[in-house]
Design goal:
Length: about 325
């Protein structure tokens, strides 16, 4: 149809011609959005596939444990723009963390274990404590956590030569084992090379929550019972690239030169048994550590968990 006739037709019928608006692509720091470059990462085996939790794909972020609610909150925060903009990935992580903080179940997992033996606790005795699944709902659901004579704590929660403001465990110092008793470090056991391999501690039975006397100490640490702990493979994911703005790769460099060698680190974790029974369908919180989701590679014999986000971040949205 000739243009004059087309204009007459539109005007006569009172139809307004359509107009196409083009919006800018969402760019994230430390992330690539180019399909060609993402395909190259997959084909060269630099990531495990399109669903690698470091990839900015729907299957990737789903495997990472990002929730639809967290992604919707992120979209509400950034809006839609016609101009190119670079959004801070910390805002995305903050939005996911905000959603999971309100809804995720809590469990205790130790990733760098140090053995603790409670010398005055009866051998063979086991107590089961009712612990909240979410402290935000103190009257809500609980899980059973076993307590025994031999425990694991995080190695970072003990310091032999501790500064004055170190409120975790130290020689002759006291801490509360979360949800249970106050313990005191009586002896530090070292191997032939001088490495700390075990702590001999005593517990105060009168400090059991809900009974006896309540005694306050400044430090509270998480732990797991060694006879009941379940071994996990933990995949700690971080940013895929080390350069914040991947559109600013220098001309004498290739984008692959900025791949983050620490974007995936593997660890072995020891978890309370209730974790493997979780059926919430979303990422859970490893207490004092971060948010983790069970991976598709997980099996009953070898549970695998991916880190969704760290527990805290200094980032605050404007």
């Amino acid at each position: 149809m000739h243009r004059p006739l087309y204009d007459w037709f539109i005007e006569t019928l009172g139809i307004y011609p359509s107009h196409q608006y083009e919006f800018a692509r969402l760019n994230l720091t430390y992330t690539l959005m180019s399909k060609r470059k993402l395909l190259e990462l997959v084909q060269k085996g630099l990531v495990s596939g399109w669903d690698d939790p470091r990839m900015p794909t729907l299957c990737g972020v789903r495997r990472r444990g990002y929730t639809p609610e967290g992604l919707k909150l992120f979209c509400d925060k950034i809006g839609v723009s016609k101009r190119d903009q670079l959004m801070d990935i910390q805002l995305l992580e903050w939005c996911v963390r905000q959603d999971l903080n309100a809804r995720s179940n809590r469990y205790m997992v130790v990733q760098d274990p140090l053995k603790v033996t409670i010398v005055n606790y009866p051998e063979g005795q086991v107590e089961w404590f009712d612990c909240p699944l979410n402290p935000a709902e103190p009257e809500g659901a609980t899980r059973k956590v076993p307590f025994s004579r031999e425990l694991y704590i995080e190695r970072a929660d003990f310091m032999e030569d501790a500064p004055k403001k170190f409120f975790r465990l130290k020689p002759e110092g006291e801490v509360r084992l979360k949800y249970t008793y106050i313990i005191k470090c009586e002896e530090v056991i070292k191997d032939a090379d001088g490495n700390i391999v075990e702590l001999k501690c005593s517990y105060d039975p009168s400090t059991r929550p809900g009974g006896g006397e309540w005694r306050s100490v400044k430090g509270t640490i998480h732990w797991v019972s060694i006879p009941h702990a379940k071994e996990l493979e933990i995949r700690n994911y971080d940013r895929l690239f080390t350069l914040a703005d991947m559109s600013q790769v220098p001309e004498d460099k290739d984008y692959k030169d900025f791949l983050n060698p620490e974007s995936l680190t593997l660890a072995t974790g020891w978890a309370e048994p209730a974790l493997l029974e979780d059926a919430s369908g979303i990422a859970v919180q490893f207490e004092r550590t971060g948010y983790y989701v069970k991976d598709a590679d997980s099996t009953p014999a070898k549970p695998v968990f991916n880190r969704t986000a760290t527990l805290k971040d200094s980032y605050k949205p404007e």
